[in-house]
Amino acid sequence: MNKRNRIRASGGVVAATAVALVTVQGSSADAGSDRTPVAEHTTGCVGTRPAHSLPGRESFPLRVTIYADKRGTTRYKSVFTGVSVDERGNAVNVYRIPSKASKASKAFDADICGHAIKGVKVRIHDTDVTRRQTYALVDRVGHDMDRWDGRFKLYTVGPDVNGCVIFGVDRPAKAEPVIKKAFGKFWARHIKVEHSGVPRLD
Q1: In this predicted model, what pLDDT tens digit does every residue of 109-143 receive, in sequence order?
Q2: Cα Rg of the chain (Å, integer)
């Protein structure tokens, strides 16, 4: 199984449709810092709220990440793409549809920045896809994991926090053009194809 799918702050292994929620970045178990986001960092803020303002014993960046994920998957699910924590950088990366495309994004940005703990950097990135859309694609693929047998083996599929969907296959060079063509131009630029062996449950 590819390294991105092994560790999460609050989630699980991606092996068809089980999807992790929070990616840990900037740690010895880092699985996210080697990826290029769908969109570059566009704006952000630095938290000013006292540390006691958010519940939990987790690190300050992780506490903000958990809050952002909760708000993104409930009130702001129409614009939310994903969130990751950068422990070393004392920062949180939030991915969402830009405010110029949705009024909800502006409110979401203000919500997260208003709840960010003092000193924690919130980096906000524009995307053009929501987590609901990436989950829908994962579910669609998960219902027919054997469709390409004979050409290559698809072992894992799961969404990345930045709006990409990661396909783990045995023959990436052969699989990539086939998979991208199968899902059309929009998804082609959001699909990442990587080498993967047969998944193991450790």
Answers
A1: 999 999 999 999 999 999 999 999 999 999 999 99
A2: 17
